[in-house]
Amino acid sequence: MLVREDLNVPMADGRVTDDTRLRATMATVTELADRGAIVLVLAHFGRPKGQPNSEMSLALVTKSYEAVLGRPVRYIDWEGAADAVATLQSGDIAVLENTRFFGGEEKNDPAVIDRFAALGDLYVNDAFSAAHRAHASTEGLAHRLPAFAGRAMQVELDALEKALGNPEHPVAAVVGGAKVSSKLDVLRHLVTKVDHLIIGGGMANTFLAARGVAVGKSLCEHDLTDTAEAILDAADKAGCTVHLPYDVVVAKEFRANPPVRIVNVHEVAADEMILDVGPSAVEALGDVLKNCRTLVWNGPMGAFETPPFDTATVALAKTAAALTQDGSLVSVAGGGDTVAALNQAGVADRFTFVSTAGGAFLEWMEGKDLPGVAALMR
After folding, report:
1. 304 — alpha (psi -120 to 50), left (phi > 0) or beta?
2. Given this model, what pLDDT does residue 359 score?
3. Which of 77, 165, 205, 330 could crosslink 220 through cysteines, CB 3.0-4.6 Å?
4. Which ranges of 191-348 would DSSP assign to H, the alpha helix?
5. Is 335 annotated as ligand-binding?
6. Residue 160 to residues 5, 165, 364: CA-CA distances in angstroms?
7. pLDDT value of position 377
8. Would you state the pLDDT for residue 356?
9. Binding site annotation covers 116?
10. What parts of the chain have a pLDDT lower than 70?
11. In the prediction, which pLDDT does 144 show?
């Protein structure tokens, strides 16, 4: 049985530094093995550009994967793969070499699909994080073999359905990050789906500028103020309330723990930059969440990597987590920076669901069909 997983883990000095993605595969892989399947794990690792690269071999991950699963895992190179697979017994688990060592993997090449398909009789896609790519191992195989969603994929899709597919209203969305340009499609889609759109991070500055606010030296895409205004107009027409900060934390330089001021957005000096949402706005946003039933979150409220500009993100995340624990809020979050911010706030395990997917989560927030998911729905 071919099982597409996400083993694309960070490494340093030959060691896995974060095994979150490995642990996410456990439910599917161990259940199948316990039921007697021969489990052949397909995965990519890095960007080898269609060529074998020893630094991106999944052989480097196999020992860590064994430790996570608590059972033997065999590594199988593509050379002689069919013969090696033939020696496996019921309940065995093996990791096949990096799928991206084939140039045709990312091109969804029928010849590569055939090569993969020849090794198994069933296909399970458990890698939501790669589902936005129409690759041979993520989409093509679903058309060649009987195809199913794995447990991690199932949990992810169920959570996303609760967040935006068929949510309980009122629905709030928190969208932060540095640039509006990276999330234009997300914002355009969300204003048609949610009741409250909370905009933070550097992108909030562009919206403030669109409203005529002087944002000093703040990160701001002034060339997109007309676009921001159009999004605000679309929100008004859709009945979506957009929340922008009205007090902010400013500094004259961007570094850890500089002198700061908390000011009204109309009082930002020409030599200052906005680096976080202010406490009054955070308190008001917390009240918004208290009146909502569903929350979807992507992106931090400020420059959270640099203290003290993580304050707003941490405070709002803790409010969301408390409401979730009280049972009054369904909270779904995703994206790399978001996961890091929620971990920093110490609340990631108190949200309803936190997705480790990056691009796939964003494309889902944009309302796009994900090829790897669509292929399973046929």
Report:
1. alpha
2. 85
3. 205
4. 201-210, 225-238, 279-290, 311-325, 336-345
5. yes
6. 19, 7, 8
7. 87
8. 79
9. no
10. 378
11. 97
First to last CA, the chain: 20
Handedness of CA 369, 374, 377, 378 (dihedral sign): positive
Third-level CATH fold of 157-365: Rossmann fold (3.40.50)
User: Is 150 labelled a binding residue?
Assistant: no
Whole-angstrom distance, CA of residue 366 vs CA of residue 362: 6
Establish whether 71 is an annotated binding residue.
Answer: no
Residue 305 is predicted with a pLDDT of 92
Q: Is 292 left (phi over 0), alpha (psi -120 to 50) or beta?
A: beta
The domain ranges of the chain are 2-149, 157-365
Same fold, 2-149 and 157-365: yes
Both tokens assigned to 115? 């090569």
Positions marked catalytic: 21, 179, 336, 359
Cα distance between residue 241 and residue 235, in whole Å: 7
Looking at domain 2-149, what is its CATH homologous superfamily? Phosphoglycerate kinase, N-terminal domain (3.40.50.1260)
Q: Give me the pLDDT at residue 20, please.
A: 86
Query: For residues 75 and 346, what is the distance between their CA atoms, to the nearest angstrom?
Result: 36
